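Extended Data, record B-4DMT family transporter
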Amino acid sequence: MKPWLLRGLGLALVHVVVRVLLGAALIQWPLQGSVLRWLGFAVVVVAAFVWAGLDGIRDHRAHPDPDEGDDLTMRWLAAGAVTGLVGGVLTWLVDAITPIPVGVTSLFFEITSGAAFTVLLVFLPAMAAVTLGRFFARRNERKTTRDDDWSVHREHHAPVGVGAAAPEGSAPANSAQQADPAWRSDDSPTEVFPKIDPKP
């Protein structure tokens, strides 16, 4: 099954279930209609957002180069169209067959204006989720790479004492200066050598 078809059918099922439950809930709590509608709206948006976010993460891990990744924009646009059309038809059938007041005006409205609204309801959160999913996957990848780089570790930048890396038992470079006190005094006498005539 095509990825866009799978996502479209899955979200269409979510859409229909939410509308059926919303219709049944309005019968029991008619005064809470506004809250229940917003809750159903949020369920559909969150379902599309989570699924698309996982798509973005998986796509970046499979294709670190953005130019080689899958076209998730067209995938989710097609998924939104399937959700709007299939969800609208199924909701109309539920309203026509069952006594649950789903709130369907007509089949024509469900496959035109209702479907267009459902497309936006799926597509816009999906695109935001794909972008965020790729961003977090890229940041996690960079963090892992930075942790594996020995040049950024604290031990690499730790100060090392003079002579710490010298072999045990070896004398330091300035041992002659330390052995002869004359090197440490500016008042020490200076030996003068006689001038040598180069002519015999």
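Summary. The helical segments are 3-28, 33-62, 72-97, 107-111, 113-148, 175-179.
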